[in-house]
Design a protein that fits this description.
It contains four helices and no strands. With 138 residues, the chain is an all-alpha fold.
Length: 138
């Protein structure tokens, strides 16, 4: 019989029952059958960086929320700017609006107007006399 060199442990004279031999498990065989844990460790590290890193998913969500807040603030500022531009255009072209603003904000009056000022009702004490009696009051 011709020896078969493809299968280890088979020699030509032992017959077909040689394949039925029971294998004993050695420490080398059990390590070959174990699942290697280092690829799972690498995957875990990659997932941690994907979630919590500089460019992680949680950081991206925080940046998108911040972007939405900034866009809202920008819309408010643009609205205020549009109102101010309208006010500038009105002040430069409309004399009545300019006069109204001067009267309300600066207290200005025309030359031919007389202004009367009345004491407020909350005042209970009479006004104090002038500090120097020699100076006549108006």
């Amino acid at each position: 019989m011709v020896p078969n060199f493809c299968h280890p442990g088979f020699s030509g004279g032992e017959g077909p029952t040689h394949f039925m031999r029971t294998r004993t498990t050695s420490s080398a065989d059990t390590t070959a059958r174990r699942i290697p844990w280092w690829p799972l460790g690498i995957v875990a590290v990659v997932l941690v960086f994907a979630l919590f890193g500089d460019r992680g998913i949680l950081h991206i969500f925080k940046l998108k929320r911040h972007q939405a807040e900034l866009q809202q603030q920008l819309a408010q500022v643009e609205e205020v700017n549009a109102g101010l531009r309208k006010e500038i255009a009105s002040l430069s072209s409309d004399r009545r609006h300019l006069e109204r603003m001067a009267r309300s904000q600066l207290g200005m009056v025309r030359e031919d107007e007389v202004v009367y000022q009345f004491a407020s009702k909350t005042r209970t004490a009479p006004p104090s006399p002038p500090a120097n009696p020699a100076v006549p009051s108006r």
